[in-house]
Design brief:
This protein is α/β, with parallel strands linked by helices. The chain contains twelve helices and twelve strands.
């Protein structure tokens, strides 16, 4: 038994490693779900309660390595999409089927191969679980490929007074024995270790969790995983759009803009040799340098003057905090006459008089202007509806798009203007 479990654990570990290397966004999410072998009586395939990845060892043994990656990513995506906190009044089985279709079509877009029992339907590609739910039969004949232990309806087990987290404190041996510090009692010999392992697999399903607290945790994990994968250049465009849609309504744009401007500011230590009057030692000294921020305004007509002034007021408030020198330009399908306008860190950033627009939207003139300026900015902030022609190549400097509307962007960081 122990040897079989060890082989299954090795297979799961190999699948997680492959995900981290090939698809770091999904791999990062999977790492937040500790693996737990479970009783086949209640876990026929895999399951999650948004805290652990539960699995039937016999089921995992029948999967290929690619399919094992799929089931790991499947459970992680349920959590990242907060399916455990979005059911509301909906019927549980019908909601579970809708969630499986939504997740599986996302993974299908990522070119991942699922097991035979994975629900797939191209009709539901790009739809959320809420959009799929009303299309399904009131009592769908489909069965999910896993179990969603998001509440106690239908689980039949899990009582009051049980600890919320099963990692430490929950009785895994079925007899209520724990160490004095609340942890699990360590087996005294190999035979008892085998018995403890068998007992752990026979443990009942976990008790219900606190959905609001877990929702907040998974939103943070989703944002961190997306940022790391984006920086590594391994976040697909479809997944990037999904993440932007998930995070945009929940993170205030002012806070996100402030974070990226703060990151662009450069405080560092210098190890330059000091004057002889200060001694012979080379001691690190903190030095500061102003950050060069380029700000571009989309004047194609979809954004009004009041919105432009509000945006510039926010930039003006932030530039003093990060010691930013701002170079402002405006563009519809061509650069505005009279620009660019340059503002020192102590100067008030106002909307220049006479900025005209109303034509089409083309972002390329702004990037061509910056390329010819011979002084690449530390950050470009573009205020737009993102409906226009983009440059074919991503620039070397970071770009933050502050977007009014739902249009995607091909590179950079997209911040939704709520």
């Amino acid at each position: 038994m122990a040897q079989d479990i060890a082989l299954i654990e090795t297979k799961l570990a190999a699948a997680r490693t492959r995900l981290i290397l090939d698809k770091p966004f999904l791999g990062s999410l999977v790492m937040h779900l500790p693996l737990k072998a479970s009783d086949p009586k209640w876990c026929q395939t895999t399951a999650t309660d948004a805290r652990h990845f539960y699995y039937n060892p016999d089921y995992i043994a029948r999967l290929t390595l690619e399919q094992t990656q799929f089931v790991l990513a499947h459970e992680a995506m349920h959590c990242a999409l907060s399916h455990f906190n979005r059911r509301n009044h909906r019927q549980k089985h019908r909601w579970d089927v809708a969630c499986d279709y939504a997740v599986n079509m996302i993974l299908d877009d990522e070119r991942m191969a699922g097991p035979e029992n994975a629900l797939m339907n191209a009709t539901y590609r790009g739809l959320t679980a809420e959009e799929i739910y009303p299309v399904l039969h009131e009592d769908p004949p489909e069965e999910t490929m896993d179990q969603h232990l998001f509440d106690d309806s239908g689980s039949g087990q899990g009582g009051e007074g049980e600890p919320e987290d099963n990692e430490a404190g929950q009785d895994d041996n079925g007899e209520g024995e724990q160490s004095e510090d609340g942890g699990e009692t360590a087996p005294a010999d190999p035979e008892s270790a085998d018995r403890a392992e068998a007992n752990e697999q026979s443990a009942p399903p976990p008790p219900p969790m606190d959905p609001d607290r877990l929702d907040e945790q998974w939103q943070g994990r989703l944002a961190a995983a997306a940022q790391a994968a984006r920086q590594a250049g391994k976040l697909s465009s479809s997944m990037m759009r999904l993440v932007d849609q998930l995070l945009a309504p929940k993170l205030p744009w002012r806070a996100m803009l402030a974070r990226y401007m703060m990151n662009a500011a450069r405080d560092d230590y210098s190890f330059q040799r000091t004057s002889r009057r200060e001694g012979e030692a080379m001691m690190p000294r903190l030095y500061s340098q102003s950050v060069r921020v380029a700000v571009a305004l989309d004047t194609s007509g979809s954004i009004g003057d009041d919105e432009l002034r509000e945006f510039l007021a926010e930039i003006d408030a932030l530039k003093a905090q990060v010691r930013a020198e701002v170079t402002l330009h405006a563009c519809d399908d061509k650069l505005a006459e009279g620009g660019p306008w340059r503002f020192a860190m102590w100067e008030t950033l106002d909307l220049p008089e006479g900025i005209l627009g109303g034509g089409g939207t083309d972002f390329r003139p702004v990037f061509d202007w910056l390329a010819g300026d011979r002084a690449e900015p530390d950050l470009l902030v573009y205020f737009t509806d993102a409906e226009g022609r983009f440059p074919e190549l991503e620039p070397r400097f970071p770009v933050v798009w502050l977007v009014k509307g739902k249009a995607p962007v091909p590179f950079g960081v997209r911040i939704q203007l709520n």
